[in-house]
């Protein structure tokens, strides 16, 4: 048998299924969905019409943290929902409990953990890691190998360059005190973060801030200001010609 489709799965019109694909109980595939070879669609996952799931992707899997992990799995975690017209790359892993908006691209080898919200027309590049409880606004772009830590928030039209690292724990896993302070960065509308920059726990990158490559942001920034250095310091205003049209 080249594929396995549970009898309770609902498959729309014009759906194309690759070889050795598994569609589990209660999954819903909208019209004109394309599913590649060796794909697993876990139970109850919803895939919007016209979306493409590439070879070897795993969508809707339950999280299974280590025994020592601080993450607790909700037994009532809702199904993964993938919007219309999305492209989910090869070898991606998308967890149950997240919602992916319309026309989102998740590139090869990326993963998105549980309880994340990704709004419409977002680009998540190759090898990007999005941890649990992350919010990503519409038309945001996250490029290759960036790391978006748990409890981060990226607003609309944010740009995250390759290799950016975000952090959420100043105690790095030591002491019970850390649980009161765990918080990822907030990156406000239109802000841009350059390659290999590091955002420390809880910082707020203000609207239209520009963070230079390699900078370490350890405090909140001012709007429409260029920051560079370790630690990051304000250099000059962002030129008016580079600001978003409002």
TrEMBL record:
SUPFAM superfamilies xref list: Trimeric LpxA-like enzymes
UniProt keyword terms in alphabetical order: Transferase
Gene Ontology MF terms in the entry: transferase activity
Coiled coil: none
Annotated transmembrane regions: none
CDD domains attached to this UniProt entry: LbH_WxcM_N_like
Name of the protein this chain belongs to: Transferase family hexapeptide repeat protein
Lineage: Bacteria, Bacillati, Bacillota, Bacilli, Bacillales
């Amino acid at each position: 048998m080249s594929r396995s489709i549970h009898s309770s799965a609902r498959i729309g019109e014009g759906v194309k299924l690759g070889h050795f694909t598994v569609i589990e109980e209660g999954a819903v595939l909208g019209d004109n969905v394309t599913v590649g070879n060796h794909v697993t669609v876990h139970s109850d996952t919803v895939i919007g019409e016209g979306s493409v799931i590439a070879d070897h992707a795993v969508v809707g899997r339950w999280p299974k943290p280590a025994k020592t992990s601080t993450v607790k799995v909700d037994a009532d975690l809702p199904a993964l929902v993938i919007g219309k017209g999305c492209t989910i790359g090869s070898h991606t892993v998308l967890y149950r409990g997240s919602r992916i908006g319309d026309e989102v691209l998740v590139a090869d080898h990326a993963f998105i953990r549980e309880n994340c919200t990704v709004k419409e027309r977002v680009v998540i590049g190759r090898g990007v890691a999005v941890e649990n409880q992350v919010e990503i606004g519409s038309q945001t772009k996250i490029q290759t190998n960036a790391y978006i830590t748990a409890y981060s928030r990226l607003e609309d039209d944010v740009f995250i360059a390759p290799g950016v690292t975000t952090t959420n724990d100043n105690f790095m896993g030591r002491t019970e005190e850390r649980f009161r302070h765990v918080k990822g960065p907030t990156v406000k509308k239109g802000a841009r973060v350059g390659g290999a920059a590091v955002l420390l726990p809880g910082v707020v990158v203000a609207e239209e801030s520009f963070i230079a490559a390699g900078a370490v942001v350890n405090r909140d920034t001012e709007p429409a200001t260029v920051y560079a250095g370790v630690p990051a310091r304000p250099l000059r205003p962002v030129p008016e010609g580079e600001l978003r049209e409002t």
